[in-house]
Structures are given as C-alpha cells and as structure tokens.
C-alpha cells in the first residue's frame, strides 16, 4: 500500500509545476479558507522531491507557521476534561495545525539527514529548524524541537559530520544553544547507558538480524563525542554579561522540563520576573557541563574515543567541571588498566591529586609499574616523563621510593635508545639533588651486595657451622658482581634498591652516543650541595629521538675535526699499545708456541740424525 502511495506521489510531483506550488502557497497565506493547501505543500517536503520544490514549499510553510506558533498548543499537552473545550472549533483547528507543524519538523529532519539532499539544501533546512527553535515557544528557546534534532542526528545511520560542523560553526557561539546542547546530550547519554545495560542482558536476542549491537553503539558514541568536543568552552569569568543569545529569553525551569507539579502555578505567576538570561545561563553552565560529561563517560567508550578523551581531559574538561573530583572513578579505573591508557590517564589523575586533594594510595606503585622500555617509544612520552618528574618532586617522598625509581630508571638506561638515556640522566640527576638520602647509591662501589645477601652464607650461619672465614667475615663487606636489586619486582618496597648502586649510570660514560656520554658527566658533581647545582628541565629531553640528536650534532661547531688519514702509514692492524689488552697475552702465547715448535723440530732432527747414523753403521757392517 505504501509503495502504491509513493508511486502516486511521484506521478503527482512530476505533473506539478513550480508555478503551481507558488499559487498554493500564496493562497494559503492570503486566506484561511485555503488551509487545505497545507497538506499539499507538506507532501513536497520530502527527500524524494526536487530541491526547488522543497525550497518553494518550505518558504510558504515557514511564513505560514511562524506567526501562529505562539498560539498553538503544546504537542505533549493533554486535552482538557471539559467537553466545551474539546468541542471548540478554534481549539480543534489549532490542534490540527500543531499536528501538521510536527509533521513539517519531522519532514525537515528527514530531508536534513537524507544522503540524497545536497549541502545547500541541508543548510537552508537547518536554518529553518533553528528559526522554529528560536520562536516556537513564544519567543523563548524551544528545547523540544532542538532535542529532537540532536537525537535524530545522533541516531542517524549516515555520516553527519557536515551537519555537525555546520551546527557548530553557526550556532554554538550562542550560549543558550550550548546550554541546551549539554542538556540534550546528557539525556541521550543516559538513554544509551540504559540501552547498553539492556543489550548486555539480551545479547542473543539483539543479534538475530546479523548485525552486532556494539557497532551501532560505537557510532552513536562517536557522534556524541564529536558534538561535545566541538562546543566552545565557557570562559572562566562568569561575570561576563555580553554573551550572545539565539533566543530572547526563557523560563529556566520550564525550558529544561524540570517543573514540578506543585510549583507550576507559582512559577506561572512569576514567569515575567524569572527569565533565563545570559548571566543566569553562564552561572548554570558548569552544572550542565558536568552532568553531560559524567553521563558520557559512563558509556562503553571505543578505544579511539577513550584515548581522545584522556588526551584532552585535563585541559578541556577538568577546569570547567563544578566538582572535578567526580572524575576520580573514571580516572582511577583508567589508570588501573595499564599500558597506554594508564599513561594518558596519569595527567588528569595528577591534577586531581595536586590541585583538588584526591587521595590515591597505590599511585606510586602503579607509576613504578609503567616504567618499561616500550614507554620510551610511546606517542605521549613527553608529557609522561614531565609528570613523572613532577610526581617525584615532593620532599616528603620516602627514601626507599626515590631509590627504587632511580634504580629502575638506571636499569632501563642500558636498554633504551639514546634519547631515552638522556631523559633518564635528567630524571636521576633531579632525584639525587632532591633526595640527598639516596646519594649512597652513587658512592657505593661494586654491586652493593654484602655477605648477608648471600643465601648460602646465611644458611651456614643459621646451621651453626664453625667456618673461620664465615665467622670473621663482616656483614658490611661487599661481595662484588652481585646486584641485590630485583628488576622484576613490581613493588618498589621489595626491590632492594637501597642496597644497590647506580652502576648502570657509570656505564653510560662509555656510551656510543657522544651526547649521552657528555651529559652523564653532570652527575659527577656534588649534588648534595643544592646551592651549587640546579635542576634539569626534563621537558628539554622528553621528546627527543634519533632525529633530534642527529640534528643537534649537525648544528654543533667542532674546533678540532677528526682527520681521515694517517700521518704515518700503519704497518699492522693494531699498534703495540692497543694490542696489550688486560687479561690477554698474545705475545707470550706466540713465543711459547714458537718455542714448542722449535723443540719439536729439534727432536725430529735428532731422531732423523740418529736414524741416519744407525743406517750408516748397518751399511758398513
């Protein structure tokens, strides 16, 4: 039946001329007797109609409905119980007009979201809908139409980036549009959250159509995040009163739909006194902003959206929340995930701890676990290392914790690229300067192990074996070659860092990269004297790479360049001084081998001579 009607409409549209539409519109605007032209014009506002027909019908319908909107009843209003009002012809007429206006809004949204419509037509249709939003509620912001528009855009199956960009560029500069955008997004997020819970309970029944419900959910979340990320942030000063308003004014409680039944009459009496002004919106914007973001963060965010949110949360969200501590659950849950997500959540969590008094007991244990070689190749490593330096700046940090971080970083320095080694040297330098109690890690020689660290010795002492060497051994004597530090231990308390030494930093003096070997010399200064030393800015090295090190080397002015020729032609691969390696005896082995060969040759010659003499004696006889 629907296909038959659509075919009839297409045939009717083909037979209709643009001049006929102009005549229908002119008659509709001239007299109430031609009100039956309204359904005819509405039939041309559809995605299948030619664009010029849609525009001509839209001009007439907008001119007809705009002056009537303040007198039309609400779509959600219930009819009165009295028969007189139900039988009133004027009330029936206005109710009918209201239903036709709702049909017009629905048709406009269909045209707006149709892939067949061109961009020019979409822009005109969006402007028309926003004009209805502006004047459709007696000169106040019509939040119902606006919420209907946003809900349709979010739930559409087609890409809506052009519409969202158009909406953001033309209308998000108005503070009331931003205000009601947050209200609508909060409602949409709460509905999606409830829908996600029901989908988890009925997963099998939801997947009978062959499509996975998470795919559509991800698309909706992407669109909501796209809208929220394109809303301009509110200025910190709420005293500003020259905000631009799209609508004139409005009743705060009536527009937001939060009127209580017992306060309706009282609010109606004070309607003219209590209006939604730009100043009142600015004061309430933080609350709506907070509710919208908290509702959005409860959704099952896709991985790409998750990372984008964490990357901008500390700058675009936390400063504008009414109570930023409300994000502690989201950030701690993200910080416990591990990997890149934990690195990106560290920034927001650090702000909550330092500026808003958030207590997170296992913060340093989680931070210690993030120090792995892969972090030196991460995308957000620059911000991460700066935050690590800031987190370890407190003078109240225990010595074992500072030693554990210094030792963990030192161990990483022998397995990371040169750019990572530079960052580690800067971090260790700052740790040694801030915490003089861990300078014993620098002055301690050998591996740092003592006799009591040897399990065999401890066992023999426990068994009471009378060993003279064991009895006379002092527990403070170092046992070279053993490092008690446990690099695999995730708990910094159990890592035994205070009994170790920073021998890894000493090996960097012979690093193949000149920048590393030169920079490590800064640790040779007496860092306990704070007046003579300064902290190193980690930000200068945190974003380094092979390219930056190579560029710095190319920009250096070298006074004495290495020569590519020999003043004296070499006669051997290694000179006499270079061939004398410690522990190697090339000459001794060669001379010994020559003596052995000579002895063997002498014996052979003697044997030969002896045999020849015997032959001569035999022949003579």
From TrEMBL:
Annotated family: Belongs to the CBF/MAK21 family.
Transmembrane segments: none
Taxonomic source organism: Prunus avium
All residue ranges annotated as the CCAAT-binding factor domain in the record: 342-520
Region described as Disordered: spans on this chain: 468-493
Annotated protein name in UniProt: Nucleolar complex protein 4 homolog B
Gene Ontology cellular component list: Noc4p-Nop14p complex; small-subunit processome
Pfam family, one: CBF
Gene Ontology biological process terms in this record: ribosome biogenesis
């Amino acid at each position: 039946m629907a296909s038959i009607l659509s075919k009839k409409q297409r045939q009717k549209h083909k037979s209709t001329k643009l001049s006929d539409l102009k005549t229908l519109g002119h008659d509709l605007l001239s007299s109430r007797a031609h009100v039956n032209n309204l359904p005819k014009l509405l039939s041309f506002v559809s995605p299948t109609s030619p664009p010029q027909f849609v525009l001509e019908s839209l001009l007439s319908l907008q001119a007809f409905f705009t002056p009537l909107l303040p007198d039309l009843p609400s779509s959600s209003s219930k009819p009165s119980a009295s028969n007189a009002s139900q039988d009133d012809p004027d009330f029936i007429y206005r109710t009918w007009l209201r239903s036709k206006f709702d049909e017009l809004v629905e048709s406009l949204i269909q045209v707006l979201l149709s892939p067949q419509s061109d961009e020019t037509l979409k822009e005109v249709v969006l402007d028309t809908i926003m004009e209805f939003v502006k004047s459709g509620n007696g000169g106040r912001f019509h939040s119902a139409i606006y919420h209907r528009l946003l809900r349709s855009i979010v739930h559409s199956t087609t890409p809506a980036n052009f519409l969202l960009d158009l909406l953001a560029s033309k209308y998000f500069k108005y503070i009331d549009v931003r205000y009601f955008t947050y209200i609508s997004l909060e409602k949409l997020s709460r509905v999606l959250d409830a829908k996600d819970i029901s989908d988890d309970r009925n997963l099998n029944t939801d997947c009978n159509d062959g499509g996975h419900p998470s795919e559509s959910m991800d698309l909706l979340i992407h669109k909501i995040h796209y809208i929220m990320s394109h809303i301009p942030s509110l200025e910190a000063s709420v005293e500003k009163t020259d905000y631009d308003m799209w609508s004139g004014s409005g009743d705060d409680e009536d527009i937001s739909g939060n009127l209580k039944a017992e306060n309706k009459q009282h609010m109606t009496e004070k309607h003219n006194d209590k209006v939604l002004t730009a100043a009142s919106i600015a004061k309430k914007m933080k609350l709506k902003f907070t509710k919208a973001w908290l509702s959005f963060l409860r959704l099952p965010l896709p991985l790409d959206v998750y990372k984008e949110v964490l990357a901008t949360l500390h700058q675009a969200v936390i400063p504008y929340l009414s109570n930023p501590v409300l994000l502690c659950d989201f950030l701690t849950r993200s910080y416990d995930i591990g990997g890149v997500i934990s690195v990106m959540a560290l920034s927001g969590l650090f702000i909550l701890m330092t500026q808003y008094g958030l207590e997170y007991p296992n913060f340093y244990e989680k931070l210690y676990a993030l120090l792995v070689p892969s972090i030196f190749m991460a995308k957000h490593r620059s911000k991460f290392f700066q935050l690590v330096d800031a987190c370890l700046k407190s003078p109240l940090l225990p010595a074992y914790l500072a030693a554990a971080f210094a030792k963990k970083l030192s161990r990483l320095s022998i397995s990371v690229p040169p750019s990572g080694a530079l960052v580690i040297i800067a971090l260790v330098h700052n740790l040694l300067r801030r915490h003089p109690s861990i300078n014993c890690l620098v002055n301690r020689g050998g591996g740092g192990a003592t006799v009591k660290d040897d399990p065999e010795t401890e066992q023999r002492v426990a068994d009471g074996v009378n060993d003279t060497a064991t009895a006379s051994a002092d527990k403070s004597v170092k046992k070279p070659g053993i490092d008690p530090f446990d690099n695999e231990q995730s708990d910094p308390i159990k890592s035994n860092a205070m009994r170790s030494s920073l021998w890894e930093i000493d090996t960097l003096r012979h690093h193949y990269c000149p920048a590393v070997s030169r920079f490590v010399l800064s640790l040779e200064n007496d860092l306990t004297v704070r007046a003579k030393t300064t902290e190193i800015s980690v930000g200068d090295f945190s974003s380094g790479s092979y390219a930056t090190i190579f560029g710095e080397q190319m920009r250096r002015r070298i006074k004495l360049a290495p020569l590519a020729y020999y003043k004296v032609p070499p006669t051997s691969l290694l000179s006499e001084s270079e061939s004398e390696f410690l522990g190697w005896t090339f000459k001794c082995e060669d001379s010994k081998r020559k003596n052995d060969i000579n002895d063997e040759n002498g014996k052979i010659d003697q044997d030969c001579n002896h045999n020849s003499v015997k032959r001569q004696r035999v022949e003579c006889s």
